[in-house]
Design brief:
This protein is mainly alpha-helical. It contains 22 helices and four strands. α16 packs across α22. It is globular.
């Protein structure tokens, strides 16, 4: 296995480095490096929020009503309910990065990063609304009733409708190919690797049974994921509908408990967050640095602008695309404005006041240490959360990757089974191999899709604005 890992690393390392330089190309702003892809996504989120008339506020309550089933139509086309579509998409964004990613953002950008990630989450709600409205509007339904949707389909449709089918097909294939490659790393190997690492911590370290037998853990994880994904989106959504509320509730309650035990530091957390957010200190570029790292963490987490969530939302049972656009705006609210914000408050009220920041601890280890300060058995809680997050993320990304794969090669039992076996095999590899180049390459491929996707969102914006406004007007109460 070591020889295989070395061969893969040596082959992909220069390619991954070159691609990462292009995709994550940065410019210096007030001494802070700004990745252009982050600026591209952040600018889109701001534009859509203003252009759509703050639909993230106007449509919030109506979105909640859809999720609880007030407008369910069993006769409508689609495969899953509004709630299960939301749960599936949330499972793809709430991953291990929600536990450790915030700690990294704050350690680099300062406490103000927590403020700006909250703002970024708010703005990202509008981006989700527009891309998921399009996902449902331009979805395709196969002869056996399976729903296929996502950016590759609405990119294809936009240009085909304007007598430019080759451009549409090329952009759709570019998006799909990048997503297939990206899903095998970001939504697969990274998740299983992080879940395995946390299990090693609570099972005796590298000398324990899990630590000494990563392939066994990998096969168990792959078997459980496989048992779900073989059943398609209905099976994935059914499991996500159970797991997402449980894992979110467990983690949120844990965060609230840790924050409450450090209540005396809450004023410090608020003061330092506001001061750093608006440049009243010099850490990491002051307010500019805080803004950049806050937006980067939020966008990397909720994936608004990448179009991936529209694949899950496309399967919803509805004949009104705008209804699912509204439901989708709840994703960044849950992922970023709730989960990430609570993670940041754990760091600000517990890790920083107790001198944990700035040492050897970083990422998920720092968050775990902050929990351990008040809950001695918290490593088990973090490990449990990490495994659930990784499992649920893998479920969602298996569906994203399969839909992109079907767009490229067509729908068929053998084609579908091939991709599913490949996906499950990569889950095992993620536990037994340290493939940094693979993850770097897949990260770049995931974020490169933001370019064609956001272009499509801008082109479709006037039409989506009309649909959302008409739908909101028709449901005024």
């Amino acid at each position: 296995m070591d020889a295989l890992a070395a061969a893969i690393e040596s082959f992909l390392s220069p390619l991954a480095a070159a691609l990462s330089k292009v995709v994550f190309f940065s410019v210096s702003l007030f001494g802070v490096s700004v990745p252009l892809v982050v600026a591209w996504l952040a600018a889109g989120a701001l534009f859509f929020t203003v252009y759509l008339g703050f639909v993230n506020i106007r449509g919030f309550w109506l979105a909640v009503r859809h999720v609880r089933g007030d407008f369910a139509d069993p006769k409508a086309k689609g495969e899953i309910s509004h709630f299960r579509a939301l749960a599936t998409a949330v499972s793809g964004t709430v991953g291990v990065g929600n536990i450790g990613g915030v700690a990294i953002a704050i350690s680099i950008g300062g406490a103000g990063a927590a403020f700006w990630l909250f703002v970024a989450g708010f703005l990202s709600m509008s981006t989700k609304a527009i891309e998921c409205t399009l996902g449902v509007k331009y979805r395709r339904i196969t002869e056996d009733g399976r729903v296929l949707g996502g950016p590759m389909f609405y990119l294809d449709s936009y240009f085909s409708d304007r007598k430019m089918p080759k451009i549409g097909r090329s952009m759709g294939m570019f998006y799909a190919a990048a997503l297939v490659i990206g899903c095998l790393g970001t939504g697969n190997m990274f998740q299983s690797n992080q879940a395995y690492s946390q299990m090693v911590v609570v099972t005796g370290g590298s000398e324990g049974f899990i630590g000494a037998n990563p392939i066994i853990f990998g096969f168990i994880l792959a078997a459980i994921v496989g048992a779900v994904v073989i059943g398609g989106v209905k099976s994935i959504a059914r499991v996500a509908g159970v797991i997402v509320p449980i894992m979110a509730s467990v983690y949120i309650v844990g965060c609230l408990y840790v924050i409450s035990m450090s209540w005396e530091h809450i004023p410090f957390a608020i003061q330092s967050t506001v001061a750093n957010a608006f440049g009243l200190d010099a850490m990491a570029g002051g307010g500019i640095g805080a803004m950049i790292y806050g937006f980067q963490r939020a966008i990397f987490s909720n994936e608004a602008g990448l179009g991936t969530a529209s694949i899950a939302h496309s399967a919803v049972q509805t004949d009104k695309p705008a209804s699912e656009g509204l439901v989708a705006l709840l994703e960044p609210f849950i992922d970023t404005m709730v989960v990430l914000t609570l993670s940041s408050l754990v760091i600000l009220t517990t890790a920083i006041p107790n001198g944990m920041m700035g040492g050897e601890l970083a990422g998920i280890e720092l968050t775990s240490a902050a929990f351990s300060h008040h809950i001695t058995w918290s490593p088990y809680l973090i490990a449990f959360a990490a495994v659930l997050f990784a499992f649920s993320t893998a479920l969602a990304w298996s569906y994203y990757g399969l839909t992109a794969w079907n767009y490229l090669v067509g729908v068929g039992r053998k084609r579908t089974l091939f991709f599913q076996l490949l996906f499950l095999g990569c889950l095992v590899l993620g536990c037994i191999l340290e493939l940094r180049a693979v993850l770097d390459f897949s990260d770049a491929m995931v974020f490169v899709v933001a370019v064609p996707n956001l272009i499509a969102l801008y082109l479709f914006a006037p039409m989506v604005k009309r649909e959302l406004n008409d739908y909101l007007a028709a449901h005024k109460s």
